[in-house]
Amino acid sequence: MSNEARVDSRNMADHLHSVAIHLLRKLRREDESSGLNAPRLSALSVIVFGGPITLGNLAAVEQVRPPTMTRIVNALEEQGLVVKKKNAEDGRSTRLSATTAGKKLLMEGRNRRVRSLARQIDALSNTEQSILREASRILATVVRAI
Amino acid sequence: MSNEARVDSRNMADHLHSVAIHLLRKLRREDESSGLNAPRLSALSVIVFGGPITLGNLAAVEQVRPPTMTRIVNALEEQGLVVKKKNAEDGRSTRLSATTAGKKLLMEGRNRRVRSLARQIDALSNTEQSILREASRILATVVRAI
DNA sequence: GATATATCGTTAGCTGGGCTAACGATATGG
DNA sequence: CCATATCGTTAGCCCAGCTAACGATATATC
Fold this sequence. Notes:
Two copies of one chain form a homodimer. Chain A has 146 residues and is mainly alpha-helical. Chain A has a single domain, classed as Arc Repressor Mutant, subunit A, CATH 1.10.10. Chain A is 70% helix and 7% strand. Chain A has six helices and two strands; from the N terminus they run H-H-H-H-E-E-H-H. A two-stranded antiparallel sheet of chain A has the order 1-2. In chain A, helix 2 crosses helix 4 (66-78), helix 2 (38-50) packs across helix 5 (100-122) and helix 3 crosses helix 4 (66-78). The two termini of chain A are 20 Å apart. The model of chain A has no long low-confidence stretch (mean pLDDT 84). At the A-B interface, helix 1, helix 2, helix 5 and helix 6 of A face helix 1, helix 2, helix 5 and helix 6 of B. The structure holds a DNA duplex (30 and 30 nucleotides).
């Protein structure tokens, strides 16, 4: 590989990193009324679409340590969005699943949070939207591989 | 606009949001040895390339409130990476600039942090790299507009 | 079957980033 | 000269990360 290519990939990585930081900072501001911030929303999403799931597995999926996930799940539980059930086959682990309220709030909260971003995407040309769509797919595999 | 397009942009926004969360979580792990985490690295970067700059302006650029930036800058100052100077023309404001050590650490820390991401980008095809390059440019303007 | 070991989740305690409210210091305008 | 505005800091709060240590349960070994 040429040295230029390496410099370029470093710049791209740098730029993507910066964009990710600022994107999340912006979106965080949309949270005020939702009662669901990013980590909780993301965890709830996994529970809704991938549940029932154990706390340890959820922590692994979300790339955090179990104590971190304990607190996130406790908050979701106190809000009545998630229920913990003992696993009958293994008393050490729990089975997390979403309540009806949890599923409902996921959709609403997620909508609220990404609404402003979606609005900006709507304003892009079709070509630009295609590029973004492809890029987000590529990025997902890239991130998974890190 | 068709309803399908709106649904699609919401899904894209959703997906980008999720990717951004997981990207930053991954990259945060690369920080251990660097001594510079994301907010400090980002702030230092602005000071290095955009300094001298006032604390308030830096906070605005970084999209955080002044008290938040005060703490970040204090940490950078304690590490000898940044210096505060009184503005001679306006005694209320300060002029932040990077020390030589700050400039050096920025390059090294930034490299370390995005190295694993750059490595994955290197492994992509030329086409995929082009898509990512375009997408990061588009995203930057999108984020700025939110 | 008893005992050692491994695994799951929680608790405790730390660091650090975000915020608002309130304040001192300095500029500026009436 | 005094009222008002602006800049940055301090204080105090919430929440997300982490490690270390622990109780409870499973499992393996003797």
